[in-house]
Task: structure prediction
Amino acid sequence: MEELVKRFIEYVKVNTQSDENCKTTPTTEGQMVLAKKLSKELKDIGLKDIMVDENGYLMATLPANITKQVPVVGFIAHLDTSPDASGENVQPQVIENYYGSNIILNKKKNIVLSPVEFSSLNKYIGQSLITTDGQTLLGADNKAGVAEIVTAMEYLIKHPKIKHGPLRIAFTPDEEIGKGADKFDINKFNADFAYTVDGGGLGEIEYENFNAARAKITIQGLNVHPGSAKNKMKNSMLIAMELNSMLPGHQTPEHTENYEGFYHLTDFQGTVENTTISYIIRDHDKEEFSRKKDLLIKIVDHLNIKYGPRTVKIIMVDQYYNMREKILSSFHVVELAIKAMKDLGINSKVIPIRGGTDGAKLSFMGLPCPNLFTGGHNFHSRFEYIPVKSMEKAVLTIVKIAELNAQ
Result:
């Protein structure tokens, strides 16, 4: 498994942050750089049918080493990292035999990864961890998944006594900005079912995710000299603040968990004359999701009555939906992963995703695709870390799924 760590460290050093303001696919050059690097690596390992298309989607095949017909299983991860934290000049650190106290990520800047603040660290005392240097994200979301899939394929090639059917793998661009499955060719991938390897802590498996929408709201104010502004000025920033105050105060990410949905204010750019604010809206329940969107529209309508027509404009777009309804009719896919973990002595944890995944869109496109753990924690932040043993368990889970499917 030394190769697994080596791979992961190499991958995270390639800056693949996606860019939601870019219209190309992939949205950043680094994603194509990594795709081409992986293409060569997969060829060297011995995979077949390797292809990187013009949009940065990489697909490859590990042919079956049995003659009987079994379902084709796919494993998918995404190449990009989140635009919410820097992915440039990532300097991973390997902490051998973590002993349970503070980890100094950056001594000069006094940046500390603390088990008091991040209690999940206490589960990994005595294990080796890979952390950031406190100045960037790590990129385990989702380069851990990429490294684990590649290593699992290599493991199967080097251990031909493990029997498996045909396996398909794919690495996608721009998942972090909700576009990872937009140009994914289901027919070309040609799998009966698949797994995204894009989850969190050891043993997690997920087949429920948020319904998701994004809203961009523009507010047109009126700026006049403040000395003569009475009954004339319309301060667009204050109207934006008023709008935000009309949303339920407890329905924000920092006040919700499990199946609870939220409104998340992601951007606020304003002057007296013009303000733009952006939200993401999330809920697992389809009806509650619709109610959340309707409330935001009603608030906009109310403010236009109060301040004048066309003062506030909203553009709202659905991003993806809860894959639960698609997975339930193919639940054997989840059961297969749970059995694989059980055989490996891993306690499986079926939990809802408080976010999205390529698997959600792919499931609605006809490819049942629940989500498997990578082992990582604190994604999208400078406090991101991943235990090496959890990564190894992810590799073995992929291998075991392939083996059980062949039986």
About this structure: Residues 286-307 form the longest helix (22 residues).
